[in-house]
Amino acid sequence: MSIEFRLPELGENIAEAEVAELLVKEGDRIEAEQSVMELETEKAVLELPCPHAGVVKKIHFSEGDSVSVGSVILTIDEEAAAPSGDESETKQDETAAAEKEQAEPEPAAAKTESAPAPKEAAPVAAASHTPTVQPAMEATAPDHRPPPPAGPATRRFARKLGVDLHEINGTGPGGRIVQEDVEGYVKSRLQNSAATGGLRTAPPLPDFSQFGPIERKRLSKLNRTAADQLSTSWQVIPHVTQHDLANITELEKVRKQFMSTSGKNGPKITMTAIALKACVQILTEMPHVNSSLDMESGELILKQYYHIGVAVDTDHGLVVPVIQNADRKSIMEIADELAQLAEKARERKLVLAEMQGATFTITNLGSIGGTAFTPIVNYPEVAILGLSRAQPQPALVDGKLEERMMMPMSLSYDHRVINGADAAKFVVRLSALLAQPFGLLANV
């Protein structure tokens, strides 16, 4: 008997994934719960196990294809997986089964296989038409509108952006509205608001091949999602960036001394881990920097947990794993967890739970270079800290010219929530903590 293996739910707000790698081929015999392919979602690569044992009869997608939740991805021949035994017994079983099917179940089987199709198709068709028919009903009875087809997370996301889900046509299964639909709707509204001074739609690209050879390279699912997220953040949040320098001369001495005595197998204390711990201390002092803005309700959501995202550059794109409950962890614990998450990110083994729930983000370009930059806030957060390469600079200390190691810091923030004075206080406080390592360690 052939069984269709459909793509199961991968997580909240995940409507589709991209086939990164096929782990089986047609004709392969597989066991139950064997991984059959790797799927790339918005921020992670996941191995997909198949609950059915048998022989892969047909693979319906190729590497690089996008697969929607509920789509048939494999056809499995389960009969081929039956354990081999005495041939006469197998033939008898097959004959008995055939006789049983010919006696009476054949019509019933036809009903059970064909009848559900129209029953399932009807609700899907109805759901797919709902978003286009509903607006006419809303005009006459706005208070009696049925709830739009969307999950709780998508509803929360729409509320944060002040979007009416009834105005959106869903692209998910059965017309379901997913987060990407909300983001696309917001971008479309922003791009089409030229008449009121808003953004204009980007003009079409020219034919670059007329100037010379070109090559087109398809963006991965991860890169496309990152591009959409950055576009949404830049268009929704009024960005301002506050720059400052932190004197980390003494901190670097203490850090290097510790590293030299901890041995090669000891924890690697990085500037990112130290800055992360310092930021958590400031976030407890300035709770509105650890918040999100709900424009629909006119409320500021103050989060009483401190999950810090850290941008990690990989060969496959930028990912942001999250240090959960950083306020409860020491610098050494944070450094060790950062190293583990960064390694998993490079090996594409991060799971979605390790990249969700961030309340504040840090991105460190110090190992690459640069004197300053303007990081984009990771919506729906309200601030992000960028660190650049520390450089020795001359400074007057008690009337004497001395060399000091100065690290550039760039705090980008949502000006609707954080004003310039508070942003300046944040970086000044951070600079003071980094300049006095004992004071920082005393609060670990």
UniProtKB/TrEMBL annotation:
The keyword Transferase applies. Its EC number is 2.3.1.-. It catalyses: N(6)-[(R)-dihydrolipoyl]-L-lysyl-[protein] + acetyl-CoA = N(6)-[(R)-S(8)-acetyldihydrolipoyl]-L-lysyl-[protein] + CoA. Keywords: Acyltransferase, Lipoyl, Pyruvate, Transferase. GO terms for biological process: pyruvate decarboxylation to acetyl-CoA. Residues 88-103 have a biased composition (Basic and acidic residues). It is an enzyme of class 2 (transferase). Residues 149-186 form the Peripheral subunit-binding (PSBD) domain. Residues 79-131, 136-155 are annotated as: Disordered. PROSITE patterns: BIOTINYL_LIPOYL, LIPOYL, PSBD. Residues 2-77 form the Lipoyl-binding domain. One of its GO terms (molecular function) is dihydrolipoyllysine-residue acetyltransferase activity. One of its GO terms (cellular component) is cytoplasm. Gene3D superfamilies: 2.40.50.100, Chloramphenicol acetyltransferase-like domain, E3-binding domain. Pfam families: 2-oxoacid_dh (PF00198), Biotin_lipoyl (PF00364), E3_binding (PF02817). Residues 105-127 have a biased composition (Low complexity). Its cofactor is (R)-lipoate. Forms a 24-polypeptide structural core with octahedral symmetry. The pyruvate dehydrogenase complex catalyzes the overall conversion of pyruvate to acetyl-CoA and CO(2). It contains multiple copies of three enzymatic components: pyruvate dehydrogenase (E1), dihydrolipoamide acetyltransferase (E2) and lipoamide dehydrogenase (E3). Belongs to the 2-oxoacid dehydrogenase family. This is Dihydrolipoamide acetyltransferase component of pyruvate dehydrogenase complex. The gene is aceF.
